[in-house]
Amino acid sequence: MDQPLQRLVDQVRAAQASGSPLRIRGGGSKDFYGGSLQGTPLEIGPLRGICSYEPTEMVITVRAGTPLVEVEAALAEKGQCLAFEPPRFAGATVGGMVAAGLAGPARAAVGGVRDFVLGVTLLDGRGELLQFGGQVMKNVAGYDVSRVLAGSLGVLGVIAEVSLKVPPLAAARQTLAFALDQQAAITLVQQWTTQAVPVRASAWQRGHLHVRLEGAQAAVESYARRLAGSHGATALEPAAADTFWTKLRDQKSTFFAAPPHRPVPGRSGTEADGPAATLWRLSVPPAHPPLAIEGDTLVEWGGGLRWIYSDAPAGRVRAIAAQAGGHATAYRGAIERGEAFAPLAPPLERIHRTLKAVFDPAGIFNQGRLYPWL
Amino acid sequence: MAIVSSTAEPAPDAAGGEGADSPRAAAALIARQSEVLAALARVLPAEALLVRREDTVAYECDGLTAYREAPLLVALPQDAAQVAELLQVCHALQVPVVARGAGTGLSGGALPHRLGVTLSLARLNRILRIDPVARVAVVQCGVRNLAISEAAAPLGLYYAPDPSSQIACTIGGNVAENSGGVHCLKYGLTLHNVMRIEGYTAAGEPVVFGSEALDAPGLDLVPLVVGSEGMLAVVTEVTVRLTPKPQLARCIMASFDSIETAGDAVANIIAAGIVPAGLELMDRPMTAAVENFVHAGYDLAAAAILLCESDGTVEEVEEEIGRMRAVLERSGATQMSVSRDEAQRLRFWSGRKNAFPASGGMSPDYMCMDSTIPRRRLAEMLRAIEAMEHKYGLRCVNVFHAGDGNLHPLILFDANDPDQLHRCERFGADILETSVRMGGTISGEHGVGVEKLNSMCVQFSPAERERMLDLKRAFDPAGLLNPGKAVPSLQRCAEYGKMHVHRGMLPFPELPRF
Q: Which of A223, B358, B489, B505 has its CA 20 to 30 A from that of B236?
């Protein structure tokens, strides 16, 4: 075992022996996300490097502390990519990407983070290194623990190494912009997807729908013509389109970068300096009509993901999401951090507790990051 | 036929430490049967409970017919409410429950438990809802895989995963095994096409995993439940994602004069940024067997035949077929034909789809193996299998989901000859363990069941297996759901581990092993 890994194992064993909580930290770029941050930071950064990359196998194996941008650069050289388009916050690592489980604009078309995880090396709460899954596309030997770690926010253990499926970049892409209201935008994207139009990503905000088509050159061109003809779209120049999707993916677009502020009584104008409203992330069945929550809204994933700035009470937002068949996450802002995620039904809560005990019996990892009771 | 070395883990025996065939044990078994039957008769109609041997014999094995066991009884509930009540009764009496779909599994995952209830879910066979806008189908667990695609066809949609048994196998069984098929590389496994799973815990408590939204709060337990071989929960309802039916599919059939060049061609296709809808390889003996069976006009002179399929819109397919042809030509294909129409495409596939029955025609019995290796080691693997044919004195023909590295060697043998059966089992284990040494896995899509319990000892460390056993207890503390499958006990592995190989670490690495 090399030094960075040995150091982590020693730290975990020491923490387990003394029962002192650890906070697993890659680049710290998603410290804002989820529940509270508790415990001594366990720095994964030193555990870095690409262990193996076989473009002809469409598999890359990476140590958790490797910067996301480094991995993407290596993949781009061979014409491959992380198809689920995770956000690249400054300093983001591959381990953090898997643990946070956040996918970007292409999620609805290609799948989420877990759909691309093939295997992991996990450092569990006993300080043992365990391998689950592998480096091959098809693997049903034993329970698939590796994919459960996608979005686990570190509550089960430290992701030391991960193998990911890395598909080729599409041959062609084109972005179209339409002037449509939210309902029409959701309906149209759903219809197009049903008709096998190669919609890779969509985003609706303030009356404008952007759609990115990706696939074979001939198919993208012919569909772009067809959609533009029937719905009066404008095509974006490739550079402008790239900027648009990159900013959206990395949450640097105006919607994310300049959150609306609560109006302060007695002041006028939009530059009031009250606290920002909570940014809610609502994941709902994509075809569901617009939600009855007031506030600046961004719709992605053909309707499957709705970002809304709202001051509405958490209970109301959660009830509306649940009624739609989905759930709401307090992504950023004023809500208590302990209430970031929607509560679980009783049998699921029990299974969460028992699973936590399996992999982290002393309860040292990321206490409170997912739920206050976990 | 029972295979002593490979039967399921012994369950806590009602008769104590005595042999299972002793008169006292037999009496205890009958008493237990009456007790469980009486309790279940209070929640299920009499016709839904089978106890007489002639009624239960059809449930004694699944698709892995070499392994058989008589269940305590068979229950055929009609709806989810009856399933819940049955589970509650069994939980109260601490009776093991083995859930079963169509019984087409190939690893013995649905092998009955001697002291357990076999829970046949075949009657939960209603398609509850198909939503053409959201592109989902909500179906009961006993609905057949192909029936979903048939019901969705008028809407221009289908359910993508297509295991070879898709005419018969149920979606509940697909969820239990995380079944694949020939289109996985492009369209994913069962896991990637299932959104929401409704079912019951071992205690009969309702539970839902996943959502019709694209994610759900908390840990994502769907990947644990999918592929868990009925050991974590009993699934009664599944919401699957439907895929728009491609306008067109065309297939290239290419011949190669060596396995190596065929393997390289596969790598070159992927390196060129192409993800084929299907990419299948057959070796010469397999090609000869299927040609004899379907008369599709396969090139019998080829060392390997590659089937490479493109699907999508007309423009996409034309463009992709052109790129595929160029790569295959560059990679040294000796012959190539592209399907002109649907009839010809199906003819190209007919041999591949009939690989198993064709093997049945060559030999009294065959054992279908299933493992995955990194694609680049294909030729090396096939050479190793050739050496094993000599070592074990049995023939083996090979089909291969080349796109995702999933091997299906078919070992030909005669089960009436105990020595052949024994050699066949060792041959199979050797293939699986060689796959692990090459960086692959002992099961690509058929599950572990009882067949591959020993090989699990090779792929996973004691700590990894222990965590899996703990994980099972986290869902099912009493250990009642399909006990003894998928994850071997530590003791079993200790016994198997006399010649223990773990991830390429041989006890005597200097010795040749063929």
A: B489
Q: Give yes or no: residues A78 and A181 share one domain.
A: no
Do A13 and A64 belong together in one domain? Answer: yes
Asked whether residue A78 falls in the same domain as residue A142, the answer is yes
pLDDT in tens, chain B (514 residues): 223 233 334 444 444 445 667 899 999 999 999 999 999 999 999 999 999 999 999 999 999 888 899 999 999 999 999 999 999 999 999 999 999 999 999 999 999 999 999 999 999 999 999 999 999 999 999 999 999 999 999 999 999 999 988 999 999 999 999 999 888 889 999 999 999 999 999 999 999 999 999 999 999 999 999 999 999 999 999 999 999 999 999 999 999 999 999 999 999 999 999 999 999 999 999 999 999 989 989 999 999 999 999 999 888 899 999 999 999 999 999 999 999 999 999 999 998 888 888 888 889 989 899 999 998 898 899 999 999 999 999 999 999 999 889 999 999 999 899 999 999 999 999 999 999 999 999 999 999 999 999 999 999 999 999 999 999 999 999 999 999 999 999 999 988 875 444 444 444 444 333 3
What would the 3-class secondary structure string for B432-451 be?
A: HHHHHHCCCECCCCCCCCCC
Q: What residue type is A74 in one-letter code? A: A
* One domain for residues A32 and A147: yes
- Note whether A34 and A117 are same-domain residues: yes
A111 in a structural domain: yes
In a domain, A12, yes or no: yes
Q: How many CB pairs under 8 A join A and B?
A: 261
Q: Looking at this predicted complex, what is its ipTM? A: 0.96
Domain that holds residue A277: 261-333
A145 contacts: CB under 8 Å, gap ≥ 6: A120, A122, A130, A132, A133, B224, B467, B468, B471
Residue numbers in B near A124 (CB within 8 A): 467
Domain count, chain A: 3
Which string of DSSP letters, residue by residue, matches A128-150?
A: -EEEEE-SSS---SS--HHHHTT
Among chain B residues, the shortest Cα distance to A216 is held by: B316
Q: Which of A134, A215, A370 sits opposite B316 (nearest CB)?
A: A215
By CA distance, what is B452's nearest residue in A? A141
CB-based burial of residue B380 (10 Å sphere; 0-12 exposed, 13-18 middle, 19+ buried)? Answer: middle
A144/B208 touch (CB, cutoff 8 Å), yes or no: no
Reduced to 3 states (helix: H, G, I; strand: E, B; else coil), residue B3 is: coil
Phi and psi torsions of A330, nearest 5°: -80, 100
Same domain, A88 and A149: yes
CATH number of residue A308's parent domain: 3.30.70
> Is A142 contained in some domain?
yes
The verdict on A33 and A150 lying in the same domain is yes
Are residues A128 and A251 both part of a single domain? Answer: no
Beta-carbon contacts of residue A230 (< 8 Å; ≥ 6 apart): none
**Does residue A282 belong to any structural domain of this protein?**
yes
Residue A338 Cα to chain centre, angstroms? 19
Contact (CB<8Å) A351/B474: yes
For the question of whether the overall pTM of this predicted structure is more than 0.90, the answer is yes
* H-state helical runs in B272-377: 284-294, 314-330, 342-353, 355-362
